[in-house]
Amino acid sequence: MKKTILFAALFVAAFTTNAQAPKLPAGTKFKVVTESNNITSMSMMGQDIELSNGSKVYQNFELKSVTGAGYQLATSITRIAGSISAMGNEQSYDSEDASLKSNRMAAEQLKVLNKQIDYTIENNKVVSTVSETGSEVLKALIAQSNGTADQAKYFLTLPAASIKPAYQWSVVDNKPDAASESLFVIAEVTATDISVNVLTNVKLATTLNQNGMEIKQNTQGTIKLKRIYDAKTGLLKSETGTGGLKGTMNVMGQDAPIDAKVTTKSSVVPM
Question: How do 193-210 and 178-189 pair as beta strands?
Answer without folding.
Answer: antiparallel
